[in-house]
Design a protein that fits this description.
CATH architecture of the largest domain: 3 Solenoid
CATH superfamily of the largest domain: Hexapeptide repeat proteins
Distance between the termini: 65 Å
Strand content: 15-25%
Number of helices: 7
Radius of gyration: 24 Å
CATH topology of the largest domain: UDP N-Acetylglucosamine Acyltransferase, domain 1
Order of helices and strands: EEHHHHEEEEEEEEEEEEEEEHHH
Catalytic activity: L-serine + acetyl-CoA = O-acetyl-L-serine + CoA
Enzyme class: transferase
Organism: Magnetovibrio blakemorei
Main location: cytoplasm
Largest sheet: 6 strands, mixed
Number of domains: 2
GO molecular function, one term: serine O-acetyltransferase activity
Shape: elongated
Helix content: 25-40%
CATH class of the largest domain: Mainly Beta
Strand order of the largest sheet: 5-8-11-14-16-17
Length: 280
């Protein structure tokens, strides 16, 4: 992986040239063409379907949207607002991806699939960030100041997720598909659900060879965990009632008990509905 410049709140300078919002710019960014080369090259480390640079440059809407944004952002910073917005408008029509020209995006950013992605004006995205289709980096205020989220280095955001407000998603964090995140996410953590909650600690992350955790599907399911907990407790109750030798009756929930945790399976308990014990 190319040399990285850590991207965080301590490594950003603030541009006051734009009255519409405070725009945070990462320091030590390379030139436009160097950025574009990195944007194309990084695809091969995150999408096994990518074969050649020509294919990536001509058939990947996420790359097209990012190239257009790099150009529009240059215009925006020079004060050519209408030209920047017009370029972003055409990019949205062509790619289905909406990125405000004021949004700050770091190096080696990858939008996989991409359709339906929305990135707001004051959003800040660090280096080596990956997002999937349907992601929204949205605002929660009509204020002209900072109102969109900040994603630090190495963040992965699953499809359909919404990250709302001027919050920070720490470096190396993962946001599960269809989650709604409205509070800060610590570094190297996984957040899922509505509203988003942390379900995975840093020591259980799975890194690919490039150092970016793309396994956003390998996350706990809190609902399944809760059901497994209930089934385990039910097994304890049935054992105490002396009902553990029976077999499950057929019901509409047939097969649900298969979700019981491995610990419960290891104990070899068979679950008998309490209704059967009552003679129903």
């Amino acid at each position: 992986m190319p040399d990285q410049v850590p991207f965080s709140s301590e490594n950003m300078s603030v541009s006051r040239s734009l009255p519409t919002a405070d725009v945070f710019e990462p320091q030590k960014m390379p030139g436009l063409f160097a950025l574009l080369r990195e944007d194309v090259s990084c695809v091969f480390g995150r999408d096994p379907a990518a074969r050649t640079k020509l294919e990536v440059m001509t058939t990947y809407p996420g790359v097209h949207a990012l190239i257009n944004h790099r150009l529009a952002h240059k215009l925006w910073n020079k004060g050519w607002r209408y030209g920047a917005r017009l370029l972003s408008f055409f990019s949205r029509m062509f790619t289905g991806i909406e990125i405000h020209p004021g949004a700050v995006i770091g190096r080696r950013f990858f939008i996989d699939h991409g359709h339906g992605v929305v990135i707001g004006e004051t959003a800040v995205i660090g280096n080596d960030v990956t997002i999937y289709h349907g992601v929204t980096l949205g605002g929660t205020s009509w204020s002209r100041g900072k109102r969109h989220p900040t994603l630090e280095d190495g963040v992965v955001v699953g499809g359909g997720a919404m990250i709302l407000g001027p919050i920070t998603v720490g470096s190396g964090a993962k946001v599960g598909a269809n989650s709604v995140v409205i509070a800060d996410v610590p570094q190297n953590r996984t957040v899922v659900g509505i509203p988003g909650r942390v379900v995975q600690s840093a020591d259980t992350a799975h890194l690919n060879p490039s150092g970016i955790d793309l396994n956003h599907h390998l996350i706990p399911d809190p609902v399944a965990d809760a059901v497994a907990c209930v089934l385990e407790r039910l097994a304890v109750v049935e054992t105490r009632l002396g009902l553990s030798d029976g077999n499950c009756m057929e019901c509409d929930g047939d097969g649900v008990c298969d979700n019981v945790s491995p610990q419960a399976r290891k104990r070899g308990r068979k679950h008998t509905p309490l209704a059967k014990a009552m003679g129903s």
